[in-house]
């Protein structure tokens, strides 16, 4: 378990997510785990759970710890193994319920921001579009500004819990203050944009040309600065706070780079030939990989915990996934469609493989220093040996849990290595789960939005105000996004089967635990991507998708 995860720790299964509370834990007991945990600088040694001799480390001589320091997601996931744990059918229904609630909440946020309120045509003027300027756009800016603050706060919690100079009461007080700031500081973004648009309107400029560049992005940056300024002094003086701010801003810039790349991608994709479309998809995949390589290289330099960087990697992939669902109907040929969908499928599979390699740490070390084919064969052999040992160890934990009740599970003292292993497995898989969820949600949300805008109800009033959506091939968009949805759902089930076969853990159980414990964090992250996507498309924000720049003198 990393120090960042200790910031999420709760003594109750199914407790609120990280950005909702911090529960007191025994810091002295946690500090005794330093030999297997991340130090205060963020250095994270691998969990030594496996040995070459028999593949399993004995727990008899290990430090015994209370199960309360398990991550809440881990408690939700693994407590089902107990004698009185929830029944299988109930867990399935709970997973479906959380997934539907997540999708419905995400849809309502997207519709509420830009579809529910009727807009006038942009050429009608600034004051005639008061609903957009003073209601819809400020709401959208609030949603967008809250996400990077949530990312920053998630890192602050990690530093907060690793600060041994703070008492538990201080941590709880600081956390409540951070929660209040996270609710009101995004309003700075809304006020900034409303004021800036009003000033431009005074000079008879409406809409603002490329408002996301001239208005939205500066407003989000200013609100981040305000959020940093209102941090308690105890937080600002922590050694990792400034580095966390740097990493968050770099992640935000990489996130916006993805939007810029996809803006050009969608602007020229429909008119390009088959070969050019294929090349564009490859270029986008390369840009996505290159930006993330830079951002996460900086993250390692600033000692950001690995599991937090995995969360940011998932967040940065969202714009690409969302924009691709929009132009899927314009793809010319099966090869182009495959080039748009398969990279995301490969990303999920490769992420899962890398998690397995990370968990079998000795194999990862050997695979990183290969010098010959013989070493490669030995490394792969060691990987499978340790993988079998990992599965065996989890099976042993599973068997032990099946013999005790949930209360006995919570009262027990477990070897530190086992607690570390369970937390590593839960933390590593959670980001892959949410990447899968986003890939399932992207075509579903796009189809839902398209149906609303093409309906005969009041929701259809804004259809002509969205570039690309009004011109979209309705029937073809439904068919291809339907196929994409089925493919991604099938991929989710295939990943679940692969997870069961490799490490003996159900992917669906991890999905339920993530949605139960981190619902608000991931809802904020995904809704930001969808709202920012529609902000780019709505004509009232002055984006010229043809890039003719007719507004220049």
Automatic annotation (TrEMBL):
Domain of life from the UniProt record: Eukaryota
Keyword field: Membrane, Transmembrane, Transmembrane helix
Transmembrane region(s): 96-119, 206-231, 252-272, 278-303, 334-357, 519-538
Designated name of the protein: Uncharacterized protein
Protein's organism: Durusdinium trenchii
């Amino acid at each position: 378990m990393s120090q960042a995860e200790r910031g999420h720790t709760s003594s109750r299964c199914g407790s609120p997510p990280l950005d909702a509370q911090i529960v007191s834990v025994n810091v002295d007991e946690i500090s005794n785990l330093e030999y297997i945990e991340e130090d205060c600088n963020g250095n994270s040694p691998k969990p030594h759970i496996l040995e070459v001799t028999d593949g399993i480390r004995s727990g008899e001589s290990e430090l015994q710890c209370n199960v309360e320091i398990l991550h809440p997601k881990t408690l939700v996931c693994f407590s089902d193994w107990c004698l009185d744990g929830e029944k299988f059918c109930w867990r399935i229904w709970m997973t479906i319920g959380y997934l539907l609630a997540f999708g419905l909440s995400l849809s309502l946020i997207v519709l509420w921001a830009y579809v529910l309120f009727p807009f006038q045509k942009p050429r009608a003027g600034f004051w005639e579009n008061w609903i957009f300027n003073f209601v819809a756009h400020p709401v959208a800016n609030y949603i967008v500004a809250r996400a990077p603050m949530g990312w920053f706060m998630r890192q602050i919690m990690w530093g907060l819990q690793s600060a041994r100079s703070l008492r538990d009461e201080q941590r709880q007080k600081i956390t409540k203050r951070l929660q209040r700031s996270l609710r009101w500081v995004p309003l700075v973004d809304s006020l900034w944009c409303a004021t800036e648009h009003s000033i431009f309107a005074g000079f008879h400029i409406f809409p603002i040309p490329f408002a996301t560049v001239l208005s939205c992005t500066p407003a989000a940056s200013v609100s981040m600065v305000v959020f940093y300024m209102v941090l308690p002094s105890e937080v600002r003086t922590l050694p990792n706070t400034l580095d966390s701010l740097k990493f968050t801003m770099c992640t935000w810039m990489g996130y916006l780079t993805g939007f810029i790349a996809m803006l050009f991608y969608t602007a020229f994709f429909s008119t390009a030939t088959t070969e050019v479309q294929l090349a564009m998809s490859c270029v986008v995949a390369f840009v996505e990989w290159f930006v993330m390589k830079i951002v996460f290289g900086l993250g390692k330099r600033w000692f950001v915990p690995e599991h937090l960087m995995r969360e940011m990697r998932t967040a940065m992939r969202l714009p690409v996934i969302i924009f691709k669902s929009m132009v899927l109907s314009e793809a010319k040929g099966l090869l182009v469609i495959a080039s748009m969908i398969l990279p995301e499928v490969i990303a999920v599979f490769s992420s899962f493989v890398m998690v397995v390699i990370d968990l079998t740490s000795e194999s990862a070390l050997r695979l990183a220093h290969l010098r010959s084919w013989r070493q490669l064969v030995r490394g792969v052999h060691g990987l499978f040996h340790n993988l079998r040992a990992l599965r065996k160890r989890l099976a042993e934990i599973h068997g032990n849990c099946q013999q005790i009740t949930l209360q006995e599970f919570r009262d027990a003292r477990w070897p530190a290595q086992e607690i570390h292993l369970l937390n590593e497995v839960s933390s590593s898989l959670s980001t892959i789960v949410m990447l899968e969820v986003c890939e399932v949600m992207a075509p579903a949300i796009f189809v839902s939005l398209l149906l609303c805008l093409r309906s005969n109800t009041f929701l259809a009033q804004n259809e002509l105000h969205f570039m690309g959506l009004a011109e979209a091939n309705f029937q073809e968009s439904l068919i291809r996004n339907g196929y994409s949805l089925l493919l991604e759902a099938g991929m989710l089930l295939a990943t679940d089967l692969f997870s069961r076969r490799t490490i003996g853990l159900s992917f669906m159980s991890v999905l339920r635990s993530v949605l139960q414990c981190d619902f608000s964090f991931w809802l904020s992250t995904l809704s930001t991507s969808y709202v920012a996507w529609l902000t780019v498309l709505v004509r009232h924000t002055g984006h010229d998708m043809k890039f003719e720049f007719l507004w220049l003198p």
